[in-house]
Amino acid sequence: MLVRDVLERKGHDVKAVSPHEAIEIAAALMRLEQVGALVVRTPEGALAGLISERDVVQAIVDHGPRALKLPVSDYMAHRPPTCRPGDHLSLAAKVMTLHRARHLPVIEDSRVIGIVSVGDVVRDRIEEMELERDTLRDIALSHQAAG
């Protein structure tokens, strides 16, 4: 499966904040949208970084409640790993593993067109395993019937 296939299934809606937004706003948006990370965009719309739930927790550990007033840029990943729509999902999984990332912005023509998460990778793998199981079961049943 390609990254573009995942985006077709889940949609291209990219939840984003600006680097100058308060962490509190980013956390509230993550909760509202039920996502684990947000793209951080420059005023021109370019990828500036990625802020995740982990980043919010780290800010609170470092600064206590006042962390919520800090700008997203203080705790975002400034150069997050990315992938492209034509990449195979297994490559995205390898990039996530290598960088210990749970979310990858998907870049096309210098624009963020979506995000692939570790949950998307796991969902795809489960579907592959179920298909393999069903195929093997069908083969076994056809051999029993013929035998």
Automatic annotation (TrEMBL):
PROSITE patterns on file: CBS
SUPFAM superfamilies: CBS-domain pair
Domain CBS: start-end pairs: 7-68, 76-131
Family annotation (Pfam families): CBS (PF00571)
Keywords attached to this entry: CBS domain
Identification of the protein by name: CBS domain-containing protein
